Amino acid sequence: MTHLYWDELQNHTFQYTMYCQDGNPEVGLSEVYDGDQLFSFNFSQNIRVPRLPEFADWAHQIEDTPAIFFDKGFCREMIEKVGPLFEGKIPVSRGLPIAEVFTLKPLEFGKPNTLVCFVSNLFPPALTVTWEHHSAPVEGVGPTFVSATDDLSFQAFSYLNFTPTPSDLFSCVVTHELDGYVAISYWVPQNALPSDLLENVLCGVAFGLGVLGIIVGLVLIIYSRKPCSGGTSGHLGVWRQRRMRGGRGAGLSCNMGSTPTEPWTLGWRGLSRAPWDILLVEVSVPHTPL
């Protein structure tokens, strides 16, 4: 049975669901707030179990164990007395579970994380969830949390703590116990965040390229604004393009009016030496006596 509490002012919903059945588990309890499960109840230990560690403090503050066991007894009595009256008259509902696996936090190799196996379209909530790593069973898996949804079906969560590596292959195996249906969902690392070392290397390379670009830009700006002049002031030279012998290169030369001087040349030339082609950058600046 399900109790819904509605706060019209804050527009929040708290859902308390007690269910019992002939399968495993025989009885269960889930408490959901705004669609997110907060607690389940361990009837063998008589304690409330938080779905996430953040809810642990709240779990110990609620003292309603007598009311929970009253609801448990009432649910079992309804199954035993009312169930036979409708047997064969009401069609049996079945939902084939659908499994999906994802990480709780963004994936980073070498850093602890948690795999989440989310099971939807579950009815009745009789299931077993196991984990495998490279087809080998994984031990030490925590409890499976089952909660009701608004469409009167159920969903389940199973969690596995692990430290991811690039070669990981995990699988979540969901077995629907009443009909033996098995759903399997696989997980392999994808779209991992770069490691700290790679981030530092990329930042260093980007910084170095940025500084080099600034220096080259400043040099080009300075020489593009500088007039072509020699020992005599007021004489501007003429920039001209010349090609190297054999058409293997090109250059810019600056000559001073009618006064023959050694040209200031900035250019490049290519040498061909099989089996490689070599590209040389040539910069020559004439020496002007003081």
From TrEMBL:
SMART domains: IGc1, MHC_II_alpha. GO terms for cellular component: MHC class II protein complex. It comes from Sus scrofa (Pig). InterPro entries: Ig-like_dom (IPR007110), Ig-like_dom_sf (IPR036179), Ig-like_fold (IPR013783), Ig/MHC_CS (IPR003006), Ig_C1-set (IPR003597), MHC/Immunoglobulin (IPR050160), MHC_I/II-like_Ag-recog (IPR011162), MHC_II_a/b_N (IPR014745). Its main location: membrane. It comes from the Eukaryota. The chain crosses the membrane at residues 204-223. Residues 91-185 form the Ig-like domain. Belongs to the MHC class II family. It is found in: Membrane. The keyword DNA-binding does not apply. It is a single-pass type I membrane protein. Keywords: Adaptive immunity, Disulfide bond, Glycoprotein, Immunity, Membrane, MHC II, Transmembrane, Transmembrane helix. The keyword Disulfide bond applies. This is SLA-DM alpha chain. One of its GO terms (biological process) is antigen processing and presentation of peptide or polysaccharide antigen via MHC class II.
